[in-house]
Amino acid sequence: MDGSRKPRPSDLPAVVRAGLAPHLAPGARLTVGLSGGLDSVVLLDLVASLRTARDFRLDALHVHHGLSPAADAWAEHAVRVARRCGVECRVERVDCRAHRRLGVEGGARAARYAAYARSGTNVVALAHHRDDQAETLLVQLVRGAGVAGLAGMPQARRLGAGGPLVVRPLLGVRRAELLDHARAQGLEWVEDESNADPRRTRSFVRHRVLPALAALRPGVVDALARSAGHAAEAAEIAEALAGIDTAACLREERLAVALLLALPPARARNVLRWHLAAHAGTAVEGAALDELLRQLASPRPDAAIRVELGAGIEARRYAGELWLELGPVPGPPVDYAARWPGDREWALPALGGRLRFDLVAGEGLAREVLEQGAEVRLRRGGERLQVRAGGPRRALKDLLQEAQVPPWERGRLPLLYCGGELAWVARVGVNARFATRPGEPGCRIAWESAPR
């Protein structure tokens, strides 16, 4: 590796103490991710030495991936190492096949982090170090990642809403220092044979790419880690700017296309990237993002667009706004009909939502009409509705357009029939002939689409 420059030794206990202190409330539970390899064994040894000075509960978690013939032996070793530190180590077996689309390395990582997320702990401490950060930057670079990917691994990040905080207190430390500590303390660790397999991306980078770069430039690991830090700062600035620009482009929950396109292209892409990550939970980069911007900028503002962004996400434009469809929803059955069971909340999974019936006075659908029985149907064409007392019966198609219901949602909206007559339409309202009179019992009906 990058051995031409000997790293300056760190006070490892002080480094770990400083890295954990801001994240450990008194009495918090701290879990060390313990693979049994050099890095995690050193981290557990260092964290265990802090317990007398810090008020926290400590345990360890070994994730058993089952990918190596030695996996059982590694788990047993992790338990023994933890026991010598006076720490309990739990072993959790995971099925990496659930993440096979990510490949062997990516699937194992996803399964491991899922285990951390459900561990019930407050903080998960991981032993990634400066050399790991340099490798991550190179891996992300050849993947064509943006600044967020080039930022590498963060010092701390939350695993989902309400999940544990992942902290990497050794991220500024070179692996050589961890090796020196392990030897000085007589620690024992195992070696994962896959770390030497050049078919694995990280192994290839570690054993082929980094040594070549070190021959070109001594101190390359530190330089790459610094670059990751610069990218992290740039990503933080880009995110802050995206928040400002997005707020200026929002109409309620959707982006106004005209305001978005008024931004410089780089900032417009930044807004889309941030908005999609916030609402769809996934990062969208490259060609899909460029294609979306290209179609949004069509000279025909009324042109329908539909762009596949991956992970089941579709972007559409309607009424000057950007709409996101998260996951395909199968079309409802032909000639769909369902009888109301009388429940105050009525789930209609075939339509992708539920109806809620709130008993009120003087508004909504007359309760005496509803109590005679009701049935939900879908549009078949030609329906008309009188939305105002004394007003004309108008085509439902026109009413849905005025309510700005997107065309792709109109065929799934529930129409409520009472006595064979159209009495209420989701997103439009009550037939005036069946509306509640002042002071009389009524029912306010609401259609709640399932989050998508």
Overview of the molecule:
The protein folds into three domains: 218 residues, HUPs (Rossmann fold), CATH 3.40.50; 75 residues, 2-Layer Sandwich (Uridine Diphospho-n-acetylenolpyruvylglucosamine Reductase, domain 3); 113 residues, no CATH class. It is built from 15 helices and 22 strands. The strands form five sheets. It has a six-stranded mixed β-sheet with strand order 3-2-1-4-6-5, sandwiched between helices. A five-stranded antiparallel β-sheet has the order 7-8-11-10-9. With 452 residues, the chain is α+β, with helices and mostly antiparallel strands. It is elongated, with a radius of gyration of 29 Å.
Work out the count of structural domains: 3
CATH domain topology of the largest domain: Rossmann fold
CATH architecture assignment of the largest domain: 3-Layer(aba) Sandwich
Major sheet description:
6 strands, mixed
Number of DSSP E strands: 22
Count of individual helical segments? 15
Percent in helix: 25-40%
Side-by-side strand order of the widest sheet: 3-2-1-4-6-5
Q: What proportion of the residues form beta strands (DSSP E)?
A: 15-25%
Mean pLDDT level: 88
- Rg, rounded, reads 29 Å
What is the CATH class name of the largest domain?
Alpha Beta
Structural class by helix and strand composition = alpha+beta
Unreliable stretches, pLDDT < 50, 5 or more residues?
3-7
CATH superfamily of the largest domain: HUPs
Estimate the global geometry from the Cα principal axes. elongated
Distance between the termini: 47 Å
